[in-house]
């Protein structure tokens, strides 16, 4: 079991295994958050949060809801807004750095081509 949390600990995330790869996206929001996204089925992720700890942000085509800690501001994950809701992104910047060090990181051009750059 891998456990990550926002800086203040108000939001905790648990996953059973590390992702096969992480994605670094350069779209307008991801490059500002510097997230490294691991993808999971929502049923395989456990998110525990204090009451009122999760702020949600939706923009653009309104397909994703970015979630962050209302106290410390760390972006923890994103959820799909529209159906099917069979995938979510977990920001592995909130996990131990050793997980990142041992996982392949792919660069994704979300700003323009919607293709992997590597």
Which structural traits does this protein have?
Metal Binding Protein, Guanine Nucleotide Exchange Factor, Chain A; 5-stranded antiparallel beta sheet; 118 residues; globular; mainly beta
Protein architecture, described:
By secondary structure, the protein is mainly beta. The protein has one domain: Beta Complex (Metal Binding Protein, Guanine Nucleotide Exchange Factor, Chain A), CATH 2.170.150. The protein is built from 2 helices and 10 strands. The strands form 3 sheets. It has a 5-stranded antiparallel β-sheet with strand order 4-9-8-7-6, with no helix packed on it. A 3-stranded antiparallel β-sheet has the order 1-2-5, with no helix packed on it. β1 and β2 form a beta hairpin. The mean pLDDT is 96.
Summarize the helices and strands and which ones pair or pack:
Elements: E1 2-5, E2 11-15, E3 21-25, H1 30-33, E4 37-40, E5 45-49, E6 54-58, E7 64-69, E8 75-80, E9 88-91, H2 97-101, E10 104-108
Parallel strand pairs: 3-10
Antiparallel strand pairs: 1-2, 2-5, 4-9, 6-7, 7-8, 8-9
């Amino acid at each position: 079991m891998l456990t990550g949390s926002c800086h203040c600990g108000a939001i905790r995330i648990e996953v059973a295994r590390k992702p096969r790869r992480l994605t670094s996206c350069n779209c307008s929001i991801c490059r500002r958050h510097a997230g490294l996204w691991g993808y999971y089925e929502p049923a395989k992720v456990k998110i525990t949060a204090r009451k009122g700890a999760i702020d949600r942000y939706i923009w653009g085509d309104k397909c994703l809801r970015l979630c962050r800690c209302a106290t410390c501001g760390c972006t923890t994950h994103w959820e799909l807004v529209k159906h099917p809701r069979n995938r979510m992104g977990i920001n592995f910047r909130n996990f131990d750095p050793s997980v990142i060090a041992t996982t392949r990181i792919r660069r994704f051009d979300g700003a323009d081509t919607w293709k992997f750059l590597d």
